[in-house]
Amino acid sequence: MAFELPALPYAYDALGPFMSAETLEFHHDKHHQAYVTNGNNLLKDSGLEGLSLEEVVKQSYGKNAGLFNNAGQHYNHIHFWNWMKKDGGGKKIPGKLEAAIASDLGGYDKFKADFVAAGTTQFGSGWAWLSVKDGKLEISKTPNGENPLVHGASPILGVDVWEHSYYIDYRNARPKYLEAFVDSLINWEYVAEMYEAATK
């Protein structure tokens, strides 16, 4: 199953001023496209060609670093674009997910502080995550293209902390980018859909 670059679910300038059209053009058209192109080249003759993207990610972990890195980043970015929307973020969270954030993570404010901290303290490139593991929400961080799928969890929200995700707009102020992501960009409806799927 060849990897394909999905179209962005909004216009390049839709997420301004929190994420610029220039960032999205570079990030989607250049970086994500490179993961797709390289991933497809590495998928050939890997023995994993017929599998779903999730299975390619899981089965290449620890065995085929090149394929894993590109497949992982492809998976992460397919969802990353959908985890953001115009006028998103803040406390407008669908009820069931809001209740889980309250019971598992201590409420929205604590979730925000811990999620921003995870992204801020991820040394170098990587991601911060909100996932479902053993029926409960947890916050984590991973290096490079790694994601919670390979740690027995289902990611329902992730934020990219590679420099190409924020440097054009925020320079080295990663915490400011992370706060803008939580306050103004998260597509909580998409997160809630992934939460429903992960807790069935």
TrEMBL record:
<dbReference type="Pfam" id="PF02777">
    <property type="entry name" value="Sod_Fe_C"/>
</dbReference>
<comment type="similarity">
    <text>Belongs to the iron/manganese superoxide dismutase family.</text>
</comment>
<dbReference type="GO" id="GO:0004784">
    <property type="term" value="F:superoxide dismutase activity"/>
</dbReference>
<dbReference type="InterPro" id="IPR019832">
    <property type="entry name" value="Mn/Fe_SOD_C"/>
</dbReference>
<dbReference type="Pfam" id="PF00081">
    <property type="entry name" value="Sod_Fe_N"/>
</dbReference>
<keyword id="KW-0408">Iron</keyword>
<protein>
    <recommendedName>
        <fullName>Superoxide dismutase</fullName>
        <ecNumber>1.15.1.1</ecNumber>
    </recommendedName>
</protein>
<feature type="binding site">
    <location>
        <position position="160"/>
    </location>
    <ligand>
        <name>Mn(2+)</name>
    </ligand>
</feature>
<comment type="function">
    <text>Destroys radicals which are normally produced within the cells and which are toxic to biological systems.</text>
</comment>
<dbReference type="InterPro" id="IPR036314">
    <property type="entry name" value="SOD_C_sf"/>
</dbReference>
<keyword id="KW-0560">Oxidoreductase</keyword>
<feature type="binding site">
    <location>
        <position position="164"/>
    </location>
    <ligand>
        <name>Mn(2+)</name>
    </ligand>
</feature>
<feature type="domain" description="Manganese/iron superoxide dismutase C-terminal">
    <location>
        <begin position="95"/>
        <end position="193"/>
    </location>
</feature>
<dbReference type="GO" id="GO:0046872">
    <property type="term" value="F:metal ion binding"/>
</dbReference>
<dbReference type="InterPro" id="IPR019831">
    <property type="entry name" value="Mn/Fe_SOD_N"/>
</dbReference>
<dbReference type="InterPro" id="IPR001189">
    <property type="entry name" value="Mn/Fe_SOD"/>
</dbReference>
<dbReference type="InterPro" id="IPR036324">
    <property type="entry name" value="Mn/Fe_SOD_N_sf"/>
</dbReference>
<feature type="binding site">
    <location>
        <position position="77"/>
    </location>
    <ligand>
        <name>Mn(2+)</name>
    </ligand>
</feature>
<feature type="domain" description="Manganese/iron superoxide dismutase N-terminal">
    <location>
        <begin position="3"/>
        <end position="84"/>
    </location>
</feature>
<keyword id="KW-0479">Metal-binding</keyword>
<feature type="binding site">
    <location>
        <position position="27"/>
    </location>
    <ligand>
        <name>Mn(2+)</name>
    </ligand>
</feature>
<dbReference type="InterPro" id="IPR019833">
    <property type="entry name" value="Mn/Fe_SOD_BS"/>
</dbReference>
